[in-house]
Amino acid sequence: MHVVGGATLVSSLMNLGLIDELQLMVNPLILGGGKALFKDVKERHALKLVRAKPLKSGKVSLTYSTQS
Amino acid sequence: MRKLFWQMNVTLDGFMEGPNRELDYTAHVVDEDFDRYATDMLKSIDAILLGRVTYQLFADYWPSAMGPDAERLNELPKMVFSRTLEKVEWNNSRLIRENVAEEVARLKQRPGKDLALFGSADLASTFIRLGVIDEYRIFITPVVLSGGTPLFKGIKDRIALKLLKATTWSSGVVALYYQKT
């Protein structure tokens, strides 16, 4: 199942241990403030890096597995 | 003018340290890929810049550490930026208490190898505001910490960067290199 979105939803699903894989995009930007992606996550999660792929746009696509 | 780069560990959720200032997550970073990076990097610089907190961590650890990297770190000149420290005792360290912008500008204009700023997030914020950091090396550890001190806490402005390189290490760390635009 592919869930798109949503810092609140991601945090809830992580807290419930329901996420197997995370796909994130890192933008080449320091924003200086805003909403944190994992802001409502309640505990420490060790992840396993699956791949990191730099894109021409300067974004970096990161994929992590939660089965570390 | 030579380059000043800032090298920093961060968690996937953007923290440089845990809620009690703990740095145990960085144990992930050290593997043979990192060692290789560190040895090459230490050959590419001829001075280190540090804020107070990172200086104290380093000065407690490195003087009694063994190996070529420890020797290199101990012998390299270190500029320590602090208004509160009275003195610095780590070999070849110099305390800089004021005129930060002038001191850094003078260092960068002097001929030589690159300059490295390690950790030192508060000082890095000052340097970013002064526009003196040329390259960012951000090492993302594969952990969500769920709380702590944000890496870019001191930055209130939007800053666009240019991606230079993204590499991965066997530890699962992603090393991202960005250039100032």
From the structure above, extract its key features.
heterodimer; A: 68 residues; mainly beta; three-stranded antiparallel sheet; B: 181 residues; alpha/beta; Dihydrofolate Reductase, subunit A; two-stranded antiparallel ribbon; 28% helix
Task: Describe this protein's structure.
The complex is a heterodimer of chains A (68) and B (181). By secondary structure, chain A is mainly beta. Chain A has one domain. Chain A is 13% helix and 34% strand. Chain A has a 3-stranded antiparallel β-sheet, with no helix packed on it. In chain A, strand 4 and strand 5 form a beta hairpin. Chain A starts with 6 loop residues before the first helix and ends with a strand. Chain B is α/β, with parallel strands linked by helices and 181 residues long. Chain B has a single domain, classed as 3-Layer(aba) Sandwich (Dihydrofolate Reductase, subunit A). Chain B is 28% helix and 33% strand. Chain B is built from 5 helices and 11 strands; from the N terminus they run E-E-H-E-H-H-E-E-H-E-H-E-E-E-E-E. An 8-stranded mixed β-sheet of chain B has the order 5-4-3-6-1-7-11-10. A two-stranded antiparallel ribbon of chain B has the order 2-9. In chain B, helix 1 runs parallel beside helix 3. The longest helix of chain B has 13 residues. Chain B starts with a strand and ends with a strand. Chains A and B meet through strand 2, strand 3, strand 4 and strand 5 of A and strand 8, strand 10 and strand 11 of B.
